[in-house]
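Much of what follows relies on a compact textual record of a protein's fold. A record is reproduced here so that you can trace the correspondence yourselves:
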Amino acid sequence: MTRYRHLITDDNRKWWTLGAMCFALFMIMLDNTVVNVALPSIQRDLHAQISQLEWWSTGTPSPSPS
């Protein structure tokens, strides 16, 4: 990390932080999309009921505030 220390200065630190937060939000949204797309396959393969799928989708760990 010391190799790239010159890229992060006091002037642009807020933009690096914003970029990191946007990337994290994108990853959370991507994870939620993958889980929602996989729900029909999960239901078919595991013979799950709708109520079990609700638990599956809400129980998937994601650091988003609810």
User: Anything to note?
Assistant: The CA atoms of residues 28 and 34 lie 10 Å apart. Residues 2-59 form one domain. The two ends are 34 Å apart (CA to CA).
